[in-house]
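> @MW can you paste both from yesterday?
MW: sure, first one:
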Amino acid sequence: MRSQIFNLIKDQTTLSWEQIAANILVSGILGFLIFVSYMISHRGTIYSKKFNVSLVVLTVLTSMVMTVIGNNSPNVRFFELVLNGEYRGLYLATEMITAGKEGSRLNLQVNKKDNTFSGYALRLDWGDTEEANKLYPFTNYTTRAKTQHELVYPGAKNSTPELKEAIKNEFSLFEKTLYSYDYNNEKYGYKNYIDIDSFVDYFLINEFTCNYDAGALSTYIYKDIDGKYKMCVWDFNSALDAYQESAMPTDDFRLNSGLWYQMLFMDSDFTDRVITRYAELRKTVFSEEYLFGFIDDTIEYLGAAMDRNYERWGYTFNQEYDLMHPTERNPRDYDEAISQMKDFITKRIAFMDENIESLRQNSAESKTKKYNEVSD
C-alpha cells in the first residue's frame, strides 16, 4: 500500500502533506483525512475536495444500503496509511465507477473498429474536462440540464467521432421521449428506456440523505447490456447537512423537480413506486435502528485506529479549520460529529414519513392535463 499511495502522489511535490490534508479535509465523521480513489480521475489528476464530518461513515453507509437493496454501488475499504515510516492517518478507499476494464462491474463494451457498442456511461458535472469527452444531447442544447454531459466510457482513446455521435443521438432519443407528450405512453414512453427500480432507489437514497448534487453534479448514468439506463450512486460530500455554504433543511423534497425526475414524477405509476418503495425500506435499511446500529458498529470496528488518527489530525477540529457556515455547524470532537449525523437522520425520517405522500401532487391532473390530453 505504501508504494502504491506514493506513486499516486509523487508528482504532487509542490504540496506539503499539511496542504493536501487541508484540501482533502481532515474532519470526516470521525475526523478522518479521507483518501478516496476517485480523486485519481480518468484524467489522471488529483481532486482536492473538502469533506465534512459525516462523510466517512456516510460513504460506507450509502454503499452498504444500496448493495443491500440490490443496486450496484462502489466498494469501500478503510485503511491506515504509513508513508516512508510516518503515520499519515485513517483513510477510506472508494472504488471508481469504471467500465470496459478488467475487474469492472459495469460490463460495457465498445468496438472502435466498427463503431458499435453494447453500452456506455455518462456523467453530469461542471464540464471541466477536455472537449473530446463532452457530449451535447437533448437536455444540454435545450438548456434543461444546467451542467455538462460527459462521456465517461468509452473515453477519448476508445472512441471515434462516429461512436460519440451515435451515443449522443441514442441518449437524446431517451431524453426527447421523456420530455415529450408521449412520456408515459406504454408503447413509446420512458418505461422502454430506463430500469425503473434503479431510478426509484437513486431518488430515495439521495433524497433521504439530502444529497442535492445528485442529478446535476457527480451524476452517473449508464446504459446496461440489457438496453436500459441505470443510475449509479456517487459522491456524498454535501449530504446529511455537509453542504459548506449553509445548513441543509430537512423539510423539503428537491430532486423531484430536477432533471429527468420532473417528468418521471408526472407519471402516477412512477410516483406510486417511489412511495411504496420508501415504505418497504423504512422497515429495514431506512430505519433508525438499522442506520444507528451500522454507525455504532463502524465506530466499534475502527476502534484504536480512531485514536491514532486523532493524534495525527485532531487539530483540524479547531475553529481555524472550519469549513461550514455558520461556524457553529462545525463539530469540535468525534462525539459531536456522530450526534449531528444521527440528529439529522432522525429529523429527515420524520419529515419523509409525514410528507412522502405529497409527492403525488407532481402527477396531479392539474399538472399533467396538457400532456394527457395530447397522449389520449
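MW: second:
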Amino acid sequence: MSTGRARGVVNGMGGWEHRVPRRLVVAGAGMMLFGRPRPAGATEVWLQQALLREVNAFRASQRRRPLGLDARLSQAATAHSLDMLQWSRMTHAGSDGSDPGARISRAGYRWRSYRENVGAGYMGVPEVMHGWIASPGHRDNMLADDVTQVGVGYAGAPGMMPGNMPRLFWTLVLAAPR
C-alpha cells in the first residue's frame, strides 16, 4: 500500500471497519477543505475542472494529448466516490459488485476502453495527483493513449477514518467512446 503526502491511501483495497453516517456531505466538505468560499453546487464543478487541468498538465509534460471532461463519466465517478464513502472502503469494485465498465455503462457511456484511479484521504487536487503520479499503475492510467475523455468524482463527510485520515474519496474515470 502506498501513501501520499496527505496520508491518502492509493493502492490496495483498504477495508476500514467502521461505517460512515448516511448523511453524506459532498459540496460542503469540498468548500470546507479548500478554504475558499464557493457557492453551493459550484464545488463539484470546480473540483472536476481543477483535476482535469492537473491531469492534462501532467499529460502535456509527458507529450500526451489532453483529455476532455465528460458528464456521464463524471456521473459514474461521483456515484462510485459516494459508494466508497458510504462503506468507508476504497476499492475498484462497487458495493453491488460492479466494475468500472459496468458503472460507466449504467451512466449511458458506450465505451471502447476505460481505466479508473481511486484514492482516499487526500485533502485536495494537488495531493491526490501527487499520490496517483507516485503510483506506477495510476500514473500509467493517466498517461494512457487509449483514452480521450475523463470523469471526476469526489465525496467527503465530516470526521476521520481509522489511521486519522479524512473521509474523502476520489475517483478518476478515463475512457474512450465506441
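> thanks! The chain has one domain: 27-177.
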